Amino acid sequence: MASPDVPANPEIIIGVLPIMAQAPAAQVSQQLNAVANWFSAVSQHRCHLSFTILPAILPQRPISYFAIAGGMGPPPQNSQSLVRAALDQLEPESLGKLAQVQSHLLAIATGPIKPHTWHLLGGGKWLGQKVWCNRYAIIQPDASLGTIAHELGHLLFNWPDLIWEKRLADECLMAWGALGTYGKQPSPPCGPLRVQMGWCDTVYLHPSDPVIKLTFSKVGLFRWHQIEWLIEYRSEPRPRLLLYRSHGKNPGTHPKILGRIFLEKEDFGKSVVGLVASHLRKTVREHSNCKFNARRAFQPL
Ligand SMILES: [Zn+2]
């Protein structure tokens, strides 16, 4: 079932501000292209990113001055002041370009700056054309695909950092999945985030529906014990089901993963709901001796 109430995502153009002595090396734009392709793939071609690289700017003070606590220290020695200083040095033409891209700003700074996404102080920077720039993401020129995708998740979609238990945290880009523990690529955004974005379709599961009904782009929903569950299928590097609580059309601002079921060959013909139910029963038996109550057992996790 498609999500007809979610509009298709239009192209999102991101202004890239190199805070460095010279224009960034060709590898940087190759990496940005790879990030755009990655978002296209994980969104089923519903998210289109492109990048406009602005002229390189070097503030008068060395970048290391702004790098206390990786750039996240108190002002003025932080990235807020660094990005502000760089924006203040931009030519009107570049400010105009940034205004046209709706101020989506990705700063790339050499020096000991840790990747993060933050807001500018003092209400932001006036770009003209009725546009303010008040947020930015900042990365280093050699940032990995996962790091850039994670920061863009914050910047463009307001996705939060997800604090998940360690053994499951590599399943989502916004938990620890940016590191790419599962395979070479970073983990995609988790099912609830993709549903929220309209990047995957949902299907209501009958108790008898088999695992093969689910694909990466089709997540399952079912009600059980007064809770709506969202089940996501992932194939790489090992077939598995990921289990979340669903909040209907609004999957929640901080989705939590509740479980993972690794699948063997024979499981593909089995009922998803049956597999989940036996997984939950087993988990509850292992973790508590109280009477089975899914709501009590899985809230809060
Ligand atoms: Zn983050």
Write the layout of secondary structure elements.
Elements: E1 11-19, H1 26-42, E2 48-53, H2 79-89, H3 92-100, E3 105-109, E4 116-119, E5 125-128, E6 131-133, E7 135-139, H4 145-157, H5 191-197, E8 201-204, E9 218-224, E10 227-234, E11 240-245, E12 257-262, H6 272-287, H7 294-297
Parallel strand pairs: 1-2, 1-3, 3-7, 8-9
Antiparallel strand pairs: 4-7, 5-6, 9-10, 10-11, 11-12
Bound molecules: zinc ion (ZN).
Fraction of helical residues: 25-40%
Relative strand content? 15-25%
Distinct small molecules: zinc ion
Sketch the major β-sheet: 5 strands, mixed
State the oligomer: single chain
User: What is the count of helical runs?
Assistant: 7
* Rg from Cα: 22 Å
Structural class: alpha/beta
Question: How many structural domains?
Answer: 2
- Low-confidence sequence ranges: 289-301
Tell me the CATH architecture of the largest domain: 3-Layer(aba) Sandwich
Distance between the termini: 29 Å
Whole-number mean pLDDT:
88
- Class of the largest domain in CATH? Alpha Beta
Helix-strand topology string: EHEHHEEEEEHHEEEEEHH
Describe the structure.
The chain has two domains: 11-158, Collagenase (Catalytic Domain), CATH 3.40.390; 191-297, no CATH class. Helix 1 (26-42) packs across helix 4. 26% of the residues lie in helices and 22% in strands. The chain has 301 residues and is α/β, with parallel strands linked by helices. Strands 2-1-3-7-4 form a five-stranded mixed beta sheet, sandwiched between helices. A five-stranded mixed beta sheet has the order 8-9-10-11-12, sandwiched between helices. A two-stranded antiparallel ribbon has the order 5-6. Zinc ion binds at residues 150, 154, 161.
